[in-house]
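Trying the structure run again after the queue cleared.
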Amino acid sequence: MDEALINGFRKLSQQYAYTSIQMHEAVARKAGLSGTDHKYLGFLLQKGQMTAGELANLTGLTTGAVTGLIDRFEKKGLVKRKFAENDRRKIIIEPDTATIMALLEPLYKEYRKKSEELTVSFSDEQIRVTETYFIKAIEIMQETTQKLNNK
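Done. Tokens:
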């Protein structure tokens, strides 16, 4: 394969990642969150309720950092702490999905519309190839993360 083509693709992939960070940081600021808090909130939206320990494991944060994160979310009314039914020593973090979506959806509205317009401009085959790339790239990133975290 053409090395220049591979290097150009790698650089484009890096630029996509950097630009994504910049956009999500801007969204987070408009929502009154830090960039990382915004992304961690995404974990809660995606996975649903979980314990603080599970959130720490998922994010790689210490339990102390997760406590601070949850405190910040709770102050903004984005999550609630509740006792686990079978073990009152265990605290479950429950995202308030409606409140979170009310906060974030308006900030993503135009981006989503333009992204959907872009996606439908591709053929089914082009979408499948792109999807395959993302699936495999995500697997590589997860594997690398696990190795770096010694898990």
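Residues 84 and 90 are 6 Å apart (CA to CA). Worth checking whether this holds up in the mutant runs.
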